[in-house]
C-alpha cells in the first residue's frame, strides 16, 4: 500500500513550547465547549479536546478517527476500586469510561453528525488510524480529523517488559486531506525488519510529533509484523 495526503494542520497537547501558560491556553480552547459538557471531561478528554480544537477551525462537520491504546482505563480502574470498596457507581460514570466515550463527547460538543471511528490499535500502533483515515479520504471525504492519544497505565497493570505504556499523557491531532496546502506526506508499508519493534501507540506518538515538528524527512515505525513508513514529499 502507498497513500499520499496532506497534513493541513496539526496540533499537540501538552504544547511543545514549555514556556507558555498551559492553564490559560486550555481555558481559551475549551471556552467554546458548553459548561454542562465541559464538566464531564476527564483530564484525558480535556487533553484530546485541546489538541483537536485548533485543527477544526470553522469546519465542525467532519469525519473523525480517534485512536488510543488504553482509552479511559484509569477511570475504569477507579470504578473497579469503588466497587471493591462497596461503593456505588453512577451510570454516567460508567458511560464515560468506555473506549469511545471521548469521541462521543466530541461529537456532542460540536454537534458533529459525520461518521466517527474509534480505534484500539494494539501492536500496530498509529498506523491503524492512518489506514482508517486515508480510507475515508479515498472514499470521498474532503477532510478527516485524526486524534491519537494515551496516558500512562495505572501501576496496577504491569507493562514491563512490553512497550505499551508511556511516561506522560499526550495527544496529537491532524487534519488530513487529499489536496490543499500543508505538509505533503506519503504513507506506506516497507520491508519488514525482524526484532525492530518500536512499541505500541503510546511510545509511537512522540515519534510522530518529533517527525512533524522537526526537519526529519522520514519516519519508520516497526511492529512485530510490519514496518510502516511516513515520508515528507
The portion of residues forming beta strands comes to: 15-25%
CATH hierarchy class name: Alpha Beta
The tally of helices reads: 8
Sheet with the most strands: spatial strand order: 3-2-4-5-1-6-8-7
Following the backbone from N to C, one meets helices and strands in this order, namely EHHHEHHHEHEEEHEE
Instruction: Provide the number of structural domains.
Output: 1
CATH superfamily heading: Thiolase/Chalcone synthase
3D shape? globular
Unreliable stretches, pLDDT < 50, 5 or more residues?
none
Please tell me the CATH architecture by its name: 3-Layer(aba) Sandwich
Would you report the number of β strands?
8
Task: Describe the protein in words.
- The protein is an alpha+beta fold.
- The protein has a single domain (2-183), classed as Thiolase/Chalcone synthase (Peroxisomal Thiolase, Chain A, domain 1, 3-Layer(aba) Sandwich).
- The protein contains 8 helices and 8 strands.
- The chain has helices at residues 22-30, 35-38, 43-56, 73-84, 91-95, 101-109, 127-138, 201-213; strands at residues 2-13, 64-67, 116-119, 143-150, 170-177, 183-190, 218-222, 227-232.
Summarize the structure.
With 233 residues, this protein is of the alpha+beta class.
Helices and strands in order, then pairings?
Elements: E1 2-13, H1 22-30, H2 35-38, H3 43-56, E2 64-67, H4 73-84, H5 91-95, H6 101-109, E3 116-119, H7 127-138, E4 143-150, E5 170-177, E6 183-190, H8 201-213, E7 218-222, E8 227-232
Parallel strand pairs: 2-3, 2-4
Antiparallel strand pairs: 1-5, 1-6, 4-5, 6-8, 7-8
